Amino acid sequence: MKEVEIIARKYFDQSLTDRERAIFEGGIALGALYHQFIGIPICKDRKLISNLERAIEEVMKLQPYRESVNVKINIEKIKGEKKHPYDYELLKGKHLDAKIIIKYGKAKATVAMKYIDELDYTLMYVERVEESV
Fold first, then answer.
1. Does the reported pTM lie above 0.85?
2. What superfamily in CATH does domain 3-131 come from?
3. Which pLDDT value is given to residue 1?
4. CB neighbour class for 72 (10 Å; exposed up to 12, middle 13-18, buried from 19)
């Protein structure tokens, strides 16, 4: 364990398991992704969308414990082609599908964010938690 991780660990309740901490870090990651990027101007330009997906993935990986970050922007939910220079849409939760794998100690949490039509809501959830021996 790195020295900075040892320093940070002392601020957390010592009864937390690696599993609980991985899930906590996953929730932080999803909340950060949502609240940092919602509101960015977008349009149905596939190159722009692809570049934005990669940029979000790369900056999200800068934060601790992120083993992988996968972001897809649902281009089909973006309004039609730009008709004039002022015609764009803002990135919304309904556009995002994201999966983040958090590795903390012996635990690995896969967390996800996805717009669920039947809920009319962008749901953040724990998809899977694994622990190594």
1. yes
2. 7,8-dihydroneopterin aldolase (MptD) (3.30.1300.20)
3. 63
4. middle
